[in-house]
Specification:
Chain lengths: ~280, ~170
């Protein structure tokens, strides 16, 4: 299908974006556009104005300072996956990027767009939850920091206000010796995940001293499996951790998979991903 | 108020297959409709129009994109390459020949997008494994061939390009 009539503006600075957002209540920000334009073509959304933020300088850099990696919101998946800094310091993200859709989509899609859209079956929101990221939202009133734990509010819903722009994602450097693991189950490569798991943790000898298990595809937004993680931190067996996952996750069925199947997949992934973390 | 003043339409200037073009386009028009309908370059195909099938894959500033997931107004100032340009430049001549030899196309609807993806893959990875080829073309649907012949064709070209390079050095 074709998009319905829509206005387009390409401001060169954030203050211009803020002014446009304030004047146009149903405007949408256009970053990579890989979900937004699909939605426009299918007429799932029908804004009066698209505000293209690709002309704003400085939103696509990846930098490290004071124990934090700062990823500009316009950083494309391609650049995230190719960044030596990300590969060295945040390997969880480097492991996740190849799972995002397909090459032509990774060439355009952005991390900020992925987070602001908050599709429940996508990789980067789950990675940001596992890595305890902080979002920077900017508006005409200044900047606001949003911890990831309060950022995701519901299905395709975040804490971002209509007049705010997500400008950067800040991720604290994982502790030295920290381990990461990522896997997802899909019917075909590049599809949205049925269930996925992004994990980050610290192991001393055979015991975990810290473990974030961030699941996606099992709820309205990524969720931390706190009980399963606690079981592993308490040196319980993998089977015990897999059993308590039922108290962490309440997946709903989709067209192909029942809730019970999804929970089973989540258990399978727990075993695979934790075993891969070494 | 005219359409330009209300932001519904805008003048864009871009380079398409080496030629500079300026047109006024509706903001809602995606890039493949612009190429096909406005410029008459019908080599880029439209399948699903929501980024799934890959038939509309083109190159913008040297990278493959889904032409249906980029608006024409976003291509202002960009360099766009379609299958017509790729064919004229002979950059994909060996791939095109091998697709033909291997019967890697039947109806041909996916072929322009498939070739765009294959060109990008071989630019980035001169010696892909069959697994890597399958991974790269996973975003390009073909409903005729069953993919094996396409993987064979890309693999054959990768090998023959590498061996030619080996001989030259």
């Amino acid at each position: 299908m074709k998009a319905s009539e829509v206005g387009y503006a390409k401001p060169a600075s954030l203050p211009e974006v803020f002014a446009l957002l304030e004047k146009n209540e149903d405007a949408r920000l256009l970053a990579g556009g890989q979900s937004l334009i699909a939605g426009l073509n299918m007429r799932l959304s029908n804004p009066t104005l698209l505000i293209d933020i690709n002309g704003i300088a400085g939103l696509n850099t990846i930098t490290e300072s004071g124990g934090t990696i700062r990823i500009g919101a316009l950083t494309r998946h391609l650049d995230l996956g190719a960044s030596p800094l990300i590969a060295a310091k945040l390997p969880l993200i480097a492991k996740a990027v190849p799972h995002i859709a397909h090459m032509a989509i990774r060439n355009r899609g952005t991390i900020g767009g992925s987070l602001a859209l908050s599709d429940p079956a996508t990789e980067l929101p789950a990675c940001c939850l596992a890595l305890n990221a902080t979002m920077t939202a900017a508006s005409s009133k200044g900047e606001r920091k949003i911890p990831v734990k309060t950022f995701f509010k519901g299905l395709f819903e975040t804490d971002l206000k209509q007049n705010e722009v997500l400008t950067a994602i800040e991720i604290p450097l994982p502790a030295a010796g920290s381990l990461s693991g990522f896997s997802e189950l899909v019917r075909r490569h590049g599809d949205y995940a049925i269930v996925g798991l992004a994990a980050q943790g610290v192991r001393k000898g055979s015991s975990w001293s810290q473990l974030n298990l961030s699941y996606f595809g099992v709820g309205d937004h990524p969720v931390l499996a706190a009980n399963a993680s606690e079981a592993l931190l308490a040196d319980k067996s993998m089977a015990d951790a897999q059993a308590v996952l039922a108290s962490d996750l309440s997946p709903s069925e989709d067209a192909e998979n029942s809730a019970a199947t999804k929970l089973h997949f989540a258990r399978v992934l727990l075993g695979r991903v934790v075993a891969s973390m070494s | 108020m005219n359409r330009q003043a209300t932001n519904l339409e805008r003048n864009i200037t871009l380079t398409v297959n080496g030629e500079r073009v300026t047109r006024s386009v509706a903001a809602r028009m995606h890039l493949v409709d612009f190429l096909r309908e406005t410029l008459g370059l019908t080599g880029s195909h439209l399948g699903c129009e929501h980024g799934v099938c890959g038939a509309c894959t083109i190159r913008v500033d040297g990278l493959t994109v889904r032409g249906c997931l980029m608006l024409a107004v976003q291509a202002d100032g960009a360099t766009v390459e379609t299958i017509e340009g790729l064919t004229d430049s002979s950059k994909a001549a060996d791939l095109q020949e091998e697709f033909l030899n291997r019967n890697a196309l039947q109806c041909g609807y996916c072929t322009p997008g498939m070739l765009m993806t294959a060109v990008e893959l071989l630019d980035r990875n001169a010696k892909p494994t069959r697994e890597e080829i399958r991974d790269a073309i996973s975003g390009n649907y073909c409903r005729c061939t069953g993919y094996h012949a396409i993987v064979d064709a890309i693999e054959t070209v990768a090998k023959s390009r590498s061996s030619k390079k080996g001989t030259a050095s």
